[in-house]
Design goal:
- The chain has about 290 residues and is α+β, with helices and mostly antiparallel strands.
- It has 2 domains: about 120 residues, Arc Repressor Mutant, subunit A (Orthogonal Bundle); about 150 residues, Regulatory factor, effector binding domain (Multidrug-efflux Transporter 1 Regulator Bmrr, Chain A), CATH 3.20.80.10.
- The protein is about 40% helix and about 20% strand.
- It has 10 helices and 8 strands.
- An 8-stranded antiparallel sheet has the order 1-6-8-7-3-4-2-5, with helices on one face.
- Helix 1 crosses helix 2 and helix 4 packs antiparallel against helix 5.
- The radius of gyration is 20 Å and the shape is flat.
- It starts with a helix and ends in a 7-residue tail after the last strand.
């Protein structure tokens, strides 16, 4: 088998593993179970997975479980801590507290207090909560995209599958990773759109070249953008959107363009603690009258 075909075969096997992990992110799979999904021996599987995905399979499972736990802690439902721990696949609250504190820099209880205090306060009404940078694209950014339907917190599966397809893409040096978000979660909760949110996991590619099955081309159009940078877990990005669109935009004198929300990921969640993640949010702006 040629080198290219071997790489494609390995990627297909790892895609099956990624899809298995995301089917039930809070389940603890054994190495043997996942190796069987990929049709590798356990001895070879964990080395191949680490090389192709950038982290061990155990690290992936823990990252997914803690990500879903952070969503539970940020909810106003006030689930008991032990229930949050068990929903995240931990049998004891002590083990959960240790793992969460190591990843998020504070205990689950402290995280819940800080998060709920932020949501319930008026801090998001302050105009200086984020620094807004105006940015102009003189040419479109070409992207390979994998569509995702469902909760935005679950788009990580689409990004992992896209990463496995990278060797077959028309690459560009220093390719950037973007997320495109077509719907507002509040519209789903209030029944204004269908039950599934629409989004796309994207990576920058060359302007021409064929794409593998399951991917499509899209682009970020040339034009003006207001950009803010958010520091912290992805589950907290909603507060940044609320501030940018609900607070800053009405007072800015700007008009938005009807395009999806755009996120640019400045570091990798596989090797970055959630508290240290950096994400840019781009808001497309209409051309000014003197520029038209």
């Amino acid at each position: 088998m040629s080198k290219a075909r071997t790489l494609q075969d390995y990627a297909r096997r790892m895609m099956r593993v990624v899809q298995t992990l995301w089917q039930d992110p809070t389940r603890s799979y054994s190495l043997e179970e996942l190796a069987s999904v990929a049709n590798f021996s356990p001895y070879h599987f964990h080395r191949i997975y680490r090389e192709m995905m950038g982290e061990t399979v155990n690290a992936t499972q823990q990252r997914l479980r803690l990500q879903f736990a952070s969503r539970d802690l940020a909810s106003a439902a006030q689930l008991p801590l032990l229930r949050v721990a068990r929903r995240a696949g931990y049998q004891s609250s002590a083990a959960f507290v240790r793992a969460f504190a190591a990843a998020y820099g504070m205990t689950p209880g402290a995280y819940r207090r800080v998060r709920l205090a932020t949501l319930q306060s008026h801090i998001d009404q302050e105009l200086d909560m984020y620094k807004v940078e105006y940015r102009t694209l003189t040419a479109p950014i070409h992207l390979a995209a994998r569509a995702h339907a469902g909760a935005f917190i679950e788009i990580g599966e689409a990004f992992s599958l896209l990463e496995l397809a990278m060797p077959a893409l028309p690459a560009v040096p220093g390719a950037r990773w973007f997320g495109l978000y077509h719907d507002d979660p509040d519209d789903v909760r209030q029944g204004r759109i269908g039950p599934e949110l629409r989004s796309e996991a994207c990576v920058e590619i060359a302007a021409s070249g064929a794409l593998p099955a399951g991917l499509h081309r899209t682009q970020i159009a040339a034009g003006r953008y207001a950009v803010i940078e958010h520091h912290g877990p992805y589950v907290e990005l909603d507060q940044a959107y609320h501030w940018l669109i609900g607070v800053w935009l009405p007072q800015s004198g700007e008009l938005p363009e009807p395009v999806p929300g755009i996120e640019l990921y400045l570091n990798d969640p596989c090797d970055t603690a959630p508290k240290d993640l950096r994400t840019e949010i781009w808001l497309a702006l209409a051309a000014r009258a003197d520029e038209a």
